Amino acid sequence: MIADPIGKFTLTNRRALVTGASSGLGARIAATLSAAGAELVLTGRIQQRLQEVAAGLSGPATIVPGDLHHPGFRVSLIDQIRARHEDLHILVNCAGTCDNGPLESQALSDVTDIIDLDLVVAIDLCRLAAPLLVGRPGASVINIASIFGQISSGGGMAGYHAAKGGLITFTRHLAEQWGERGVRVNAIAPGFFPTPLTGELADPDQRRRIVARTLLKRTPTLDELEGPVLFLASDAASYVTGHILTVDGGWTAC
């Protein structure tokens, strides 16, 4: 008999850092982890938005506003967590943005800025947070990648593709490095979800493209990312690491 399968999804007595938590997927992920019992540390650039997100959570949360582009802020962020809490159980690397247009029309900074935020920041936060994660029960890293780290979008976004592809490979590499140390490292590769980054899927042409391309023949809702996030963050996925969980309605299946 299975004693308590639902209990494996609880995050009580665990602390989670969510980057990019002021809006979109980051805000929704924060709400999901909080509802499952986790104590949250939220970071993003806009303090007011972080305060609004924190006010709507089910449990306690600390906000640390700042720009993750700056290495000094990343050090300060982890130092503050260490000083206040001494440990960390869950790290969700969600901060990111995207570029657009033909590569030859982009400035080098257009590309490198995307790669810095979408890839280098996640790598560096894992590096800095390692002492807080290793040895903690249920330690889990979740990197928010994209289906466009696996396939081409058919358009621009060279920096975004490179960064998300790199993040997927980094996820597998770090899972190998940290497996024996008890830290699981996985990634979620979403398709198009309604967020500020995708224009909330308000463009009718974009919606028609998604419906035509996905096997489920519809656009997603934000709540459909909650289950995958909670699974990877919790003991329900205690034997899952190095995995890229694609949540795209079947976009990449054919």
Structure, briefly:
This protein has 254 residues and is an alpha/beta fold. 39% of the residues lie in helices and 13% in strands. The protein is built from seven helices and seven strands; from the N terminus they run βαβαβαβαβαβααβ.
The CATH architecture is: 3-Layer(aba) Sandwich
CATH superfamily (homologous) name: NAD(P)-binding Rossmann-like Domain
The percent range for strand residues is 5-15%
CATH class: Alpha Beta
How many domains in all? 1
Contiguous helical run count: 7
Query: SS-based structural class?
Result: alpha/beta
| Gross geometry | globular
Termini separation comes to 38 Å
Task: Give a quick set of tags describing it.
7 helices, Rossmann fold, oxidoreductase activity, acting on the CH-OH group of donors, NAD or NADP as acceptor, 254 residues, single chain, globular
Written overview of the protein:
Belongs to the short-chain dehydrogenases/reductases (SDR) family. It comes from Microlunatus phosphovorus (strain ATCC 700054 / DSM 10555 / JCM 9379 / NBRC 101784 / NCIMB 13414 / VKM Ac-1990 / NM-1). This is Oxidoreductase. By secondary structure, the protein is an alpha/beta fold. It has one domain: 3-Layer(aba) Sandwich (Rossmann fold), CATH 3.40.50.720. It contains seven helices and seven strands, in the order E-H-E-H-E-H-E-H-E-H-E-H-H-E. The chain has helices spanning 24-35, 47-55, 71-84, 108-133, 158-178, 204-213, 226-233; strands at residues 15-19, 39-43, 61-63, 90-93, 140-144, 184-190, 244-247. It starts with 14 loop residues before the first strand and ends in a 7-residue tail after the last strand.
